[in-house]
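Office hours follow-up: a student asked to see two folded examples consecutively, so here they are.
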Amino acid sequence: MSNVKNNNDINAGKIIKNKTDNSIKTGKKAEIESGKESGKGSEIESGKESGKESGIATEIKEKKDKKIDIRDYKPEDKTILSIQNVNRIYKDEESEVTALSDINLEVKKGEFVSIIGASGCGKTTLLRLIAGLDKPQSGELSLDGEKIVKADPKRGYVFQQGGLFNWLNVEQNIAAGLKARHVYKEKKDKIPEYIDMVGLKGFEKSYPHQISGGMAQRVAIARALINEPELLLLDEPMGALDNFTRAALQDKILEIRANTGATMILVTHDVDEALYLSDRIVIMTPRPGKISEVIDVKLHHPRQRNASDYIRLRNKLLEKFHLASEPIEPEYSI
């Protein structure tokens, strides 16, 4: 009897031990599962999500920091500016002058369009109407489907002489655009970015009388761009510059266009300037100002001024203004 009892106790002990082992195993398994859900597993998943977010942020920063080559830039196939049947007549007690007659034009998003023509053909008048600084007698202008009725920061304007404030330095002149809109506090940190964009880093504290004409025009461009306009209007901003400064500024404008995607409209008397910069060239006739022709410029950037295609198109433009010289007949002696 004693042996039987001892065997039973041993067997019972084994059963208890097995149950205990199973409980321990079960507990460890539960702990492991729990750890996966609430501990290490959570940390791993959190790490994955954190890494994913970090990767996206890095990608966005890289895209922002990466400059687009002007050779890769293409305007969008979307109309942003529409001008329909616009007429502008100036009247006084004694006379009436038709500055613009039946103007119709559409401009694509991100496109560079130049308007050229003789003095008095209404180029600047048309630019002022687009800016909302003047109103037509009839017809309609709209930006991205919204009728243009007054000036708006969506349409930046760069004047012929820049229009800088002489008592403000470069940094303060650029900030003036933000202060006019009452958004200086929110966007003042963007000023260094635009100073760098126009290549004026190091001249932040310089005043207009301390910088060149080309640099002053770059300040004016930065002041217009800092408001992030959908449309940048350029009223002969390079007309008073020497050839070397003008060429450098033209390249800078193309670089800015590529990296901001801004739509640009330039008024100029310079056929070469229009040809070098534009996707399309609008030719206007004298009073009454009308659009006589719109020429597509299918030359890749950067454009070579001495390339045969460039010279051929330049001569074609000059012929339209009766400025092309007659071909010289070769002289032969026998």
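And the second, which I mentioned at the end of office hours:
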Amino acid sequence: MAWNSQIYENIRVRCVAFEREGTWVNGFCIARACPIHSVLDKQENRFYRYFKLLERWLKPEELFGFIDVLLDKKTLHFGEETVVLENDGLPPGSEQLWSFEFMAGDNKYDPYPGDVYCISRSTRLRANDALLASKLPFYPDISAAIIDWCGVESFSSSHASAGSVMLYLPECRAYVDELTRSQDQLIVSINSADVLPKDLRLKGSWKIPEGIVPFDLKVEGPRITIDIPPQPEDFEAYLIGADETLFDYHKEAQMWRFGRGRALRPSADDGDKASTSEEAVVRQAIGAGEGMEVEFKPYIKPGDNKRDELTETTIAFANTVGGNILIGVNNHCAIVGIEKEVQRSGREGGGKNLNEELEKYLGQIKQHIAAIVCPSPALDFKLVKIDGHIILLVTVSEGHKKPYHDVRNNSIYVRRGSNNMFPNPVYELPQLFRETGEDESIFQ
């Protein structure tokens, strides 16, 4: 902490506690250091019948005293409020050990990269009670409260961090701020909360089919240009100082990444393609992998039950933020195309012209979605030739007549990450109806 304390203004500690047999127990606590040029919001404590949402602010020099009390007394203090740390399953003494992880920027806790320390516990949460008070925000359960109050991406009553205390120390002296592709070059933007340290280097490598292409570049300004080799598969880069301090890193493959932005995502100006071309959209989607706005499907045979997965995704995209469905791309991000299966099906039916069979297949997909999804969302269908294959690109726009549903059973779906899910009936489903004023009772 001492080496970075000069650029921390204060530390915000937030905790969600629950009542158990007259004692207030830690459900989850996170202490997040706030750099001088950043702002963390301040809130009043919130008191519910069985839950407390607590906040405390520390000066950097007070942190070690806070930790000493935590380790010695196994308690957290928020003014007059005392919260205890329980241990329902870990071996004796193991909860005393801090685990450590350095996280790249744009992570689940903070935009900055930084050190994450954690005292792990094994606590059974009070999971079945809602947080309800007349003048306070409503939460359906303690997990929803932890996500909102503590600023974490996801949490559940069975989460491995239940009962734990986390400390996040952002590394803001130097970090990767942005990645930008321009034809055969990657531009890495380096930023700092103050002045960039001297003698920084950006080191790493590209993985290509033939092997590894390393790079080692001195940081002489806020932008660094790296040559992109042909057919990159993986990319990793580390921002380090002369004393071996790791300031930030970026690791990426086709299906995942750690860090900000994308290095493998094709640029819109690669080659002579226009930025709005369907091929550019397809390559960008494949580079990003399946997620909130991208779904891959191999060839779907007309009449196959797999078509229901297609309508579910269409409904989920329309109810959320829209997205692209790529039919002819498998779950490994490999382009397999639909042309062979379409041609085989056409031959079995007496057809001979591939283009005609492709148009026929496109029409069948259109008809199936139109027959199942209600109301009709804004859709765009394109047959895209790419890398010697043909795929069907279905672009689903975010709808303005939510909620979209399956006419056969009134099922409603929303998109969460790369999954289609039923909306939470307490706080997601009512929001879908409020957006358009539809009558919720017709779906009950």
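Two things to take away from it. The chain has three domains: 2-170, 175-258, 278-443. Residues 175 and 191 are 6 Å apart (CA to CA).
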